[in-house]
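This part of the workshop introduces the protein records we will be handling. A learned vocabulary of local backbone shapes supplies the integers on the structure line. Getting from the letters to the tokens is the skill we practise here. As an example, a complete record with its sequence and its structure tokens follows.
=====
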Amino acid sequence: MLPRMSGPAPAHNPAQADSAPAAPSKASPLPRPRRSGALPQFLEPLLASTWGRLLLSILSGTLLFLSCADFDIWPLCWIGLVPLLWVLLDDDGQPRTRHPFFYGMVTGIFANGGGFYWIVGLLQRFGHLPWIVAAPLFLLLVAYQALTFGLFAVIVCRLRMHIGVKVTWLAPLVWVACELCVPYVFPWYLAITQAWVPTVIQVADITGPLGVSFLLVLSNGALFDVLHALGRAKSGRRLRAFLGTPLMAVGTIVLSLAYGTVRIHQVDVQRQSAEKLRVGVVQANVGIHEKFVPGLREQQHALHLSLSQELTKQGAELILWPESSYPYPLLRPVSGDFPESDARKVQRGFQTPIVFGALTAQRGSDGDLEIFNTAVMFDKDGKTAGTFDKNFLLIFGEYLPFAHELSFLREAIPAISNFSRGTETTTFPIDVRGKRYSLGPMICYEDIIPAFGRRLFADKNPPNLMVNITNDAWFGATSEPYEHLALAVYRAVEHRVELVRAVNTGVSAFIDAAGRVYQKGPSVDPQLQPDAKPVTLLGDMALLSAGGLYQRLGESFGFLCLILVMLFGALSRQRAGAPLRLGLLVGGSLVLHAVVVVGGLLAPSGVKALYAVLLHRGDNALPEALAFAASWQLLLLLAVTSLGLGIYCGRQRRKRAPKLELCGAICATTVLPVSMLGRMEGNTGAVVIVGGLCVVAALLGLRLSSLRRGKAPEEPTST
């Protein structure tokens, strides 16, 4: 049974306005004096001041981004969160600060800022924004993506205050729960830091990247507990600090590494006996401003043809060109290659099957021209073997949400492309020495999204080889192409199928089913390196049958961590003397869903459209006008209902305002359904926007009702 932390709250020390004194032990009515334990002496003054805590939070963020590509000091991530934990928790494992969210956000801002520094250059060079505009947009993005760290800090402090779970296990559970539920504009996970450490990442074929993140935070939590236990142990008994919970953590990590060693050996055995396909990759290093320009596009096409001819002479059985590498638009449906006399011919001088990126166009039902970002495959005879339209478009880069309905935004930001979105995955057939195999196409960021990978492998003909075509020329020779590659590594591990990437300016790569990058090209910036030469890669890719439990389990591991954190939260509230009102939480969520159903029955958009938008499942297939109507109707229904719930709860004159229950009800309506039933595939910032506006509306309702009564709702100091 978990020990209960109780007793009267100690007096507040005004000399440390930011500190939250530790709860006294049961053995003594007086608070135990704080000790530095095994921590270095210089930490004492740092932890005693706001500036010192701020410095340690910055240190944590810096260690984390230095462990990412392309700094690649990956061991730092195994210890990188310890400084933040020092800031959050004292020697007794109790909250040290009353502002954990602030320090968590500082850590997250620096971690994300160091990893996404290239956003400023992107906005300046290609968005044509001045630095004074690009910098605030960059800060807004990294602050949003730092929410995981802020929530992690708050939840760890709140739970550790009232339950006896060691930080060793509490921290990784909370981190995984936060990483699961917070959608990003640029999806990433802490596991990105270990992409080049094959033994560590093999557990991803069961847990996905969240399992690797769990191991990393487990190491940080265990180190934190060991350091404090060493300081508290009497002389001669310090060996005990390594026993119990820390030893279990070490055992878990060792078992994971042993599993990784075994799985790598199994992959090597399977690869040796598997059929091989010799794949040639063209990385032409064409600048972003040279594409589709008359006069330049002919040179670009000739370059791709000559490189492909050389690869064919070297024995290539499949050629890959990057995303949007074909410089001429194609009309849909794509019927096959052009005749020999046509300058647009793709397979000129070779007959090797080819997968290439092109823009395809057709007239929509409303008569407007629809343009798709498409992967096209021609077989050896020049016939179309398959086409795939990019599903995951980058918001404000490749599309403007509801461009027709919000035409004024289109006029204000004319540089934004407006591609039509694909709605389905598919596989391309390929014959290799008399046997039929399948290729799984992914375009650009689709290879970094775990949910998209699972959807691709749910095809009736699951891929035996994944092919990703990408254009990362937007980002230049920054860390972004290497971060992209590091995130893509996990798709190969999750499904035990190899991945080949063709990237316009790098990093093109061959990745085996154990996640090992065994050949890659450079990352170049044609604008700054005009003399950069084109690159070709040639390698044998094993054609494997999909394996790993992740395809079937999905994010089950993440949901298990989330459920445990929610149970700990309910227990913590109970021990704090403020039990969680489950009736209000469940009832509030039911009310919100009921309003959506009733609204759908009354509104022209219908219940099906409202839930397609709410779940982010099937919304891509809706006509744009219907999707727009369903979106604003859903937002209006949920926001108004949340305001009403806040007013209703505020009028009940409860001693404690049910803020947590209201927020939980809203999250159970807007976030959990997407995570469990929908598609958390990116572009789910709408989830946070809708949920955030509803939370603001609910809190506003509480505030309005309290003002009407003449006083604000009271909060007990124990929470």
